[in-house]
Amino acid sequence: MEPTQQTTTSNAPKSGWLKQLFPILALFFVAVVVLPAIFMPWAFVMGGGFHILPTWQGWGKMHSNTAGGDYVIRISIYPKTGRRVGYTHVKGSAWLCTPRGESFYMNLSGDFQKDLRLNTDGKTASFSMYNYGIKSKFTADHRPSLALQGKWKNPDLVLDDNGSIARNFASDGTLYPPKSPARPSLPEVLPVTLHEGGNAEFEAACKAVKGMR
Predict the structure, then answer these.
(1) For the chain: N or C, fewer Cβ within 10 A?
(2) How far apart are the two ends of the chain, measured CA to CA in Å?
């Protein structure tokens, strides 16, 4: 009677896959956590609270008398370095909902005060953002483009829009056509305070704005 042969399962493919994944995860950890911790420690304490990852998310509402009503904006930011931007530059995303219920996804970049260290309180902040939704990628139409400027008043960002909402949106809350002569020469400047919070709070505020119409 021939002995029964036992089949053995090789772990080589699985261990090989793990060996390939480990250096990728290590590089990601260095890029996302280690380098910011060394060169941009402020990124872990934006707004005065500690964050495990160097990111900050916040949202706020602004009211326009000339551009149709209430707008809600949310931003998500993280530190970004480069030869020309230094160690107080941030990148990220922004989302805007309008009085008409429209939503815009935007690419964001910004800068904080140059002497920023471990305390953001009182330090200046400025952000610029432009429409980066799917449609804009095909049409090259990046309206709206917005600007926010102000300073940290921990735990919030206290900013104004530098007139950018009124330069982009008409009195009924619709986007001005490109190069529209109807844009105001002295646009209304809107204050906005961004409170730390995520998508759930932002979506609830957007629904409330939409329900006011």
Answers:
(1) N
(2) 86
- Convert 15-29 to b/e letters by CB count within 10 Å (16 or more is b): eeeeeeeeeeeeeee
For residues 26 and 50, state if they share a domain: no
Cis peptide bond N-terminal to 54, omega within 30: no
For the chain, percent of residues with pLDDT exceeding 90:
63
Task: Write out the residue range of the structural domain in which residue 28 sits.
Answer: 12-40
Is a pLDDT exceeding 90 seen at residue 4? no
Identify the H or E element spanning 20.
helix 12-29
> Mean pLDDT, to the nearest integer, of 132-137?
86
pLDDT at 38 over 90: no
Closest CA relative to residue 92, chosen from 122, 120, 54? 54
Question: How many CB atoms are closer than 10 A to CB 64?
Answer: 21
Based on the structure, what is the number of domains in the chain?
Answer: 2
Put residue 47 in one of left, alpha, beta given phi > 0 → left and psi -120 to 50 → alpha. Answer: left
- Residue 160 pLDDT greater than 80, yes or no: yes
Q: pTM for the complete prediction? A: 0.82
What confidence category does residue 181 fall into, taking pLDDT thresholds of 50, 70 and 90? confident
- What does the angle CA 42 – CA 47 – CA 50 come to, to the nearest 5 degrees? 65
Q: Identify the three-state secondary structure at position 204.
A: helix
Query: How does 82-103 read in b/e, with b if 16+ C-beta sit within 10 Å?
Result: eeeeebbbbbbbbbbbbbeeee
- 107 within domain boundaries: yes
Cα–Cα distance for residue pair 163/57, rounded to 1 Å: 23
